Amino acid sequence: MTDLNTLTIADARDALRKGDTTAVELTEACLTAIEGAGALNAFVHHTPDLARDMARAADARIKAGEATALTGIPLGIKDVFCVRGVPSQAASRILEGFRPEYESTVTQNLWNAGAVMLGKLNQDEFAMGSANESSCYGPAVNPWKVDDRQLTPGGSSGGSAAAVAADLCLAATGTDTGGSIRQPAAFTGIVGLKPTYGRVSRWGVIAYASSLDQAGPMTKTVRDAAIMLGAMASVDPQDSTSADVAVPDYESLLTGDIRGKRIGIPREYRVEGMPPEIDALWHKGAEMLRDAGAEIVDISLPHTKYALPAYYVIAPAEASSNLARYDGVRYGHRARLGQGDGITEMYEKTRAEGFGPEVQRRVMIGTYVLSAGFYDAYYNRARKVRALIKRDFEIAFAEGIDAILAPTTPSAAFGLGAMDSSDPVQMYLNDVFTVTLNLAGLPGIAVPVGQDKQGLPLGLQMFGRPFEEGELLNHALVLERAAGFVAKPRRWW
Amino acid sequence: MSITEDQARKVAHLARIAVDDAALPALARELNGILHFMEQLNEVDVTGVEPMTGVTPMRLKRRVDEVTTGSMADRILSNAPDAREGFFAVPKVVE
User: Fold this and answer.
1) Of A27, A37, A387, B76, whose CB is crowded by the most CB atoms within 10 A?
2) How many domains are contained in chain B?
3) For residue B65, is it within any domain?
4) Would you list the DSSP string of A56-97?
5) CA of A148 vs chain B CAs: smallest distance (Å)
6) Within chain B, which residues score under 70 in pLDDT?
7) Does B93 contact A343 at a Cβ distance shorter than 8 Å?
8) Which domain holds residue A173?
């Protein structure tokens, strides 16, 4: 048998049910892989004892014939999810030492489905970033490498992407506010699914921008994404934006048949300066879908260009409000106070010490765009533009488009430290193809489709109609099969 | 619009983040760069468009107004940097 940690969820599930392996063996294989992968800095809090306990319980469940979707499947959990009794700090110093007294709905759903918790995964601080460089743990490192440079696994779910690509776990959770599942998935050659807003509960997920945040699976295959989404999603009374829509059996919707479907190619995604390799990959992807019997249609999403500036008004505005809770009183870090310091100094010093530079920047931008005199000029205008961006998609879908195909990122993975930190806008441009989806609340999936001339993975993404993740996954399956992406990073760590 | 050093100081204070005076020019420059990027939004005709509040057109859910949980003060205080006698402790607020 191959190394157990390299299995997909679907293959591991079948092996467990047939009795070819046990959850304990699977878990040990992952724990060994994690121990040998310190150089990737993907796992930042390790929970081996918990993993072994959960694996033993899973084996008992399998023996008793009570196995469910994920029984015995070892997973990595992004640090942003609250897990009871386990450090959960969204890669921020300000939550140092915080051990939640409660469990996020997503992780509770996963444990109920029988999954095994391996530990917490690296990310950008409060999920703000596209290179995993804003983490208080230092950056996670991409297992893909072409020379002596260390490459970013992307962000913000960079630890999740690195861990799945390097086979440290069978799959991982991620969150996507402006592309934080799909961009790292593309940079590491894995599958990343951002569900429809409201599909997956946000309860217990440390908030960045509440109207955009959505958790989703990061997996080795499209089938695994279908299995894992089914376990993560639920209607949750604890999240008032959780949608009252029943969760289907996503795996059973994977027919591989997309004949007669209409796939939109949005012309506005052909941006200036896009590398020819990405453009060629996009054409190739469209051909693959056409060969499978779909109709390829040129469409227009005219407000695409304004998604990025609208996002960088709305997300920081919501962040400045969400992050107001970090005041040094109820949890996490509190600054040492000087003689005569009052409560205002306590807040200001605590937040200056606890938040990293990118988080400080976004909190201040958010504060500015919400302040008296600027609220209409920036925040309200951005929300109006957001309405127009959403309308673009609604018009496309109303005209009979079933799914949209676009590149995931404007480049392959870049070097850690390659972006000029004094020019934050340069980093923001990474999200140009991904933020539109969050603004419109739609589901999207990144699928590895090819490699650039250096051998780094490149991905395409597909967008679907709201709450039709099943159909979206089916389109993605066709793309995955046609692309036949099987490359793996060569082990150097 | 552009942000002066004074305005940067004011924003930092509103955000309750201590910023050294020496760091203000760089902060103002960064914020200006970002705001300049956002000014593209002025090209869009938004006449008659309602600002979007949420993604899904749905009414916020309601539930019966009753106590559903409680009696766990020790768990709530367990992560506090300073908790005393069942309370969060903060520096003196009222003289």
Assistant:
1) A27
2) 1
3) no
4) HHHHHHHHTT---TTTT-EEEEETTB-BTTB---TT-GGGTT
5) 32
6) 1, 95
7) yes
8) 4-261
